[in-house]
Specification:
Elements: E1 4-15, E2 18-30, E3 35-39, H1 46-53, E4 63-65, E5 68-71, E6 74-75, H2 81-87, E7 92-95, H3 99-102, H4 109-120, H5 126-139, H6 145-148, H7 158-169, E8 176-180, H8 188-205, E9 208-213, H9 216-222, E10 225-230, E11 233-239, H10 240-245, H11 250-257, E12 305-307, E13 310-312
Parallel strand pairs: 3-9, 3-10, 7-8, 8-9
Antiparallel strand pairs: 1-2, 1-4, 1-5, 5-6, 10-11, 11-13, 12-13
Length: about 325
């Protein structure tokens, strides 16, 4: 049984322009001690999916439903907000996309990590908790953690703030760490350090990681399995090795073709158009929402192809032919 099972998750927001179907039938599994990546362009539903799993979308603001949304034996959708708060941080923690906005600007960073521990562990003496915070900060590679304990977020660099966020998320050794674009706005050197840190901490603590990113390079370095999202839906999923070696859905292929490392004759191949607004998904061709942007579209498109552990929701990704261009 997977640690986290997500089946047909839907997160819909009522708006003046109609119903925004931000996540519209997302399904995947996260195994213990493994990393699963949610990949896609901005606006595909990655972060909304993560926030729904973490219970951070107010239920009065959105309609959230699923055939199954289970953490171990717990049905997450059946939890009331108080029970969810008890689970969040202790079992499911999150690293947010922008540490500068996620951290309290008028609170010392050490006290922010301490607060995360105090919420769940009232019986531990305060001095012992503070020592634990300093040790946590040191474990993320921060030099002079006892000095940094007294600093405010604006006094730290972007990489240091991200390490504070990681220390805070891992303070209670959660079973699941949700990392939403953990390397955004960091330079290449710091990005590599953060990814290496996450991998090392995962091996040490056995934490499962749900990685939200649009960077396929990050996925290649860190993830075991992946799901490619487009317009609120999963269009392809499988092991990172399988998807990278043989991307089968035209959208997945287009993502790879737009990478500088795979540029043809030194020229990037952009994906025409853009992700449509979530309020317009109903007006798109169903079930393939990529149809209007796909260079291979025709009347054979609306079937599903599968292979063990690798699924792509596209007739043209026929696994029997191994390569997509063989069925064009």
């Amino acid at each position: 049984m997977p640690l986290l099972h997500v089946e047909d998750l839907k997160v819909h927001f009522p708006t003046r322009r109609g119903l925004a179907r931000a996540a519209d039938g997302v399904s995947f599994d996260l195994e213990e001690g493994k990393t699963h990546a949610l990949v896609g362009e901005s606006g595909c539903g990655k972060s909304v999916t993560a926030l729904a799993i973490a219970g951070l979308i107010p239920r009065e603001r959105a309609s959230i439903s699923a055939t199954s949304l289970r953490f171990r034996e717990t049905d997450l959708l059946s939890l009331d907000p108080r029970d969810y708060r008890g689970l969040r941080g202790r079992e499911i923690a999150m690293i947010f996309q922008e540490p500068m906005t996620a951290l309290n600007p008028v609170m010392k960073v050490g006290n922010q990590i301490l607060e995360a521990i105090e919420i769940h562990e009232d019986s531990t003496p305060t001095e012992e908790r503070k020592k634990r915070v300093v040790q946590l900060m040191a474990s993320t590679g921060l030099a002079e953690p006892d000095v940094l304990y007294e600093k405010y977020p604006h006094q730290l660099s972007g990489g240091m703030r991200q390490r504070i966020m990681i220390a805070m998320a891992l303070a209670l050794k959660p079973a699941i760490l949700i990392a939403d674009e953990p390397t955004t706005a960091l330079d290449v050197t710091v990005q590599a350090q953060i990814l290496e840190l996450m991998n090392a901490l995962q091996k040490e603590m056995g934490t499962a990681i749900l990685l939200i990113t649009h960077d396929l390079g990050v996925v290649a370095q860190t993830a075991h399995t992946m799901s490619v999202l487009y317009a609120g839906q999963v269009v392809e999923s499988g092991s990172v090795r399988d998807v990278f070696s043989e991307p089968c859905h035209p959208y997945t292929q287009a993502l790879f073709q737009s990478l500088p490392a795979r540029a043809r004759n030194g020229e990037l191949v952009p994906i025409p158009g853009s992700v449509p607004p979530a309020t317009e998904y109903d007006s798109l061709h169903s079930p393939c929402r990529f149809y209007d942007r796909c260079q291979f579209k025709d009347d054979r498109c609306f079937q599903q192809s599968t292979a063990p552990g690798h699924v792509a929701w596209c007739r043209r990704s026929a696994f029997a032919n191994n390569k997509l261009n063989q069925v064009h």
